[in-house]
UniProtKB/TrEMBL annotation:
It comes from Bradyrhizobium japonicum. This is Transcriptional regulator. It comes from the Bacteria.
Length: 78
């Protein structure tokens, strides 16, 4: 099976990301490496509707933020 590379978009990060973007955002080299850590190190997707799985940037920020960092949940305002 071929590994899928993570994606880093030019410009800015979207608020909702598919697995390839989420993997790039948190610094994983491949989508598969990211997905293996979902549910433990990384959050479950906020949108999970069949093949449509989206992670919110706020959830990913909390997962990769240093201990004790208090980040507001801007997703609640959506």
């Amino acid at each position: 099976m071929t590994s899928r590379p993570s994606t880093i978009p030019p410009g800015s990060w979207p608020r909702r990301m598919q697995a390839d973007l989420a993997a790039g955002y948190v610094g994983e080299r491949t989508v598969e490496a990211f997905l293996q850590r979902v549910g433990t190190d990384y959050p479950l997707p906020r949108v999970d509707e069949g093949r449509r799985r989206l992670w919110l940037i706020d959830d990913l920020d909390r997962a990769i933020a240093p201990e004790g960092t208090d980040l507001p949940d801007l997703a609640d305002e959506l």
